[in-house]
Amino acid sequence: MNKDLISTDKKKESIDTFNTTREKIISSDRRFSEKNDHLLFENIDLYDISKKIQTPFYLYSELEIIRNITEIKEAFKNYPNTKIFYASKACSLIKILEIVKDNEIFAEANSIYEIMKCIKSGFKGSEIIFNGVLKKKSDLEYAIKNNIYSINVDSFYELDLIEEITNELQIEANVSIRIEPNVSSPTHPDCVTAYHAKAGIDLKDAELMCKKIINMPYVNLKGLHIHIGDQIPIIDPFSKAVKVIIDEAKRLENSLNIKFKSINLGGGIPVPYKYGQGNPLKDYLYTSLNSSDFANIIIDEVLKWRDDIEICIEPGRKIVSSAAVLLTTIYSEKIKTNYDDKFNILDIVNWKFIDAGYSILSDSLHFNWFFYLFNTKNIKDDYTLLTKIAGPLCDGGDYFHQGVYEEFFLLPKNTSLGDTLAFIDTGAYSIESQTIYNNRPRSAVALITKEGNIELIRREDTFDDIISYDIY
Ligand SMILES: Cc1ncc(COP(=O)(O)O)c(C=O)c1O
């Protein structure tokens, strides 16, 4: 078939699929609905709210966070000896941490300030896990003094520091050993953390590390830890990794005559960014895997071994991703022609410029992520306008690379300046990676409380904030 026809067919298919998804979202997604053509999130009119709070800003739903936590708890309900540690790196706003704490799960941290934020939000040290490939002596000292639930040791160097500190202070520290199970996953390459990865120690070194810990007077060995990566779209890598860690734990228990207290399977539960029947093996933004699938393979495998060991997990994305939308305004538009170097016309491109570039929603550039995008005041009409969506930053790359059809997004034909757009499923790893690049402020964040009220939970940076770090 002729190349142009194939591309016309593909374009038509992408447009149709997107419009079907849009209709499904407003008719059956638990978070969204439609009123007077406007898009509602947890019954809040997104167009109206975007005219009350200055865009760009994120809007979180407390209810959706609670639903997600409940779903994970439910998945593990047949194994009551499970502890859930929310990976605070996914979103560490104090208010969000407080919501997590109120819902009676624990926290995972990857830096000293993350630990401090968790403590400030009400978690006890004994409810926090400390991960990371580089922990300085002062970080470990703080963690140990705060009686952290488990420091997941990532190297012999780190273990030596823990020994030194606990001997000096004569206080106990709980540790687990992060091993690399050597399991690859069809997620984004930068999200793989258990295959040729920097984290964890080799399986063959685990026995030596256990022996060392057993001989340390103040260090308690809790168990083994893995985290195979983020947004793992299929079950196979989890199944393989759970078998590897359990086989190794069994072997170590036998050869060293010890009994581990816990086994930590990390995070990585995926969420769909593209809805429907896509192929997760080819595109990790599609997934149908849920918390029960994740729980079942862990519980089944653990029960073949022991029923008296504690299971720990560290989900991040699954708890907050679906709980936020990013609201942004169209401030400018233009039509530009793409030529080849002999000035033959290749394409005519409609550009819309919004007030949120990759300094506000960075996944779009670094990870080439995809988010559905809707016009908040026109959600019912068919979306037929193919347009590229660009941010305000100086870089040529500051536009959203993954659209509905190639680099193009779809909006309703009558979209105009001043309209506000909503990127959905933006609750994970977004606020955490905002920057003040080009001296543009990091965004505000608002929350729809479970009672349906709106609260500002973070304000936008001011000029004074931005210069407050400079010494002059
Ligand atoms: C050690 C560890 N645990 C848990 C997580 C959370 O992963 P996710 O958000 O995919 O659940 C991460 C994410 O990078 C991690 O590095």
Automatic annotation (TrEMBL):
The keyword rRNA processing does not apply. Keywords: Pyridoxal phosphate. Residues 67-321 form the Orn/DAP/Arg decarboxylase 2 N-terminal domain. The lineage of its organism: Bacteria, Bacillati, Bacillota, Clostridia, Eubacteriales. This is Diaminopimelate decarboxylase. It comes from the Bacteria. InterPro entries: Ala_racemase/Decarboxylase_C (IPR009006), De-COase2_N (IPR022644), Orn/DAP/Arg_de-COase (IPR000183), PLP-binding_barrel (IPR029066). Its cofactor is pyridoxal 5'-phosphate.
